[in-house]
Amino acid sequence: MRHLLSAADLSRAEAVRLLDVAEQMAATQQREIKKLPALRGRTVVNLFFEDSTRTRLSFETAAKRLSADVITFSAKGSSVSKGESLKDTALTLQAMGADAVVVRHSSSGAPHRLAEKGWTSGAVLNAGDGTHEHPTQALLDAFTLRRHLVGGGALGAAAGADLAGRRVVVVGDVLHSRVARSNVRLLHTLGAQVTLVAPPTLLPLGVETWPCEVSYDLDAALAGQTSGPPDAVMALRVQLERMNAAYFPSAREYSRRYGVTAERLAGLPPHAQLLHPGPMNRGLEITAEAADGPRSRVVEQVTNGVAVRMAALYLLLAGEEE
Are residues 117 and 210 in the same domain? Predict the structure, then answer.
């Protein structure tokens, strides 16, 4: 694995291997001293052209826990605000000796361009590009689901396990969601059955070619009228900042038809889990009762994100030397 640009780039074996290494990384984070010397002497650059809290801090924490030197670059207050291109920024970082570049960019395909054009000799990790993909978010979601649906929760999942036969409902703003795209691809690779639920206006063109089912009715999807009730529900954030038109009649109408509530979750099997990539619009795509309820794994997802990103950095930079 040279770069991590898309969830579609990962084979089943590669995805399971990464999740297994993430389990090992998670185990080290229970120790009093959490640092590992695995990436000592390596330099990881966080190149963020878009605002971020969870992803940026997660990657920064992961690199530091592996003893790498970390440079965090924010487009605001840099030469980017003066018109510097992605290429020139990348070449500057290359001159500083970056071994890995973690990229978040508002333009779909920016990390791929960075890797394919050879503007950096280091590994490129996609931390979210436009409405395209967010592979490490999908990996941490799969890691969380695997722990609770295949393993013993916080005790971890069995090595080599995938999500074969598990059913996942993903509901919300699929049109603008890079998380949805990455999750559909990765969960399918791991053997899960995915159903996307959204109003027609919030589904992208060509969604019928994705390896998943599509529904406009959340209650029908949760009832499992075709394949049985889901093992997990993932609520997607309604990305109001990307909307320049009226995609649904009103917030109240959207919440009534597509909001994840405690009442809807109560009808699911006892083992069913609730995920959300964050940040949450409480009262819109998810209620406070659901977000803070016993099925919710939202906070745990953040914790798991550090272990998964530690695994990704480790395998890209030191995997061949282990």
Answer: no
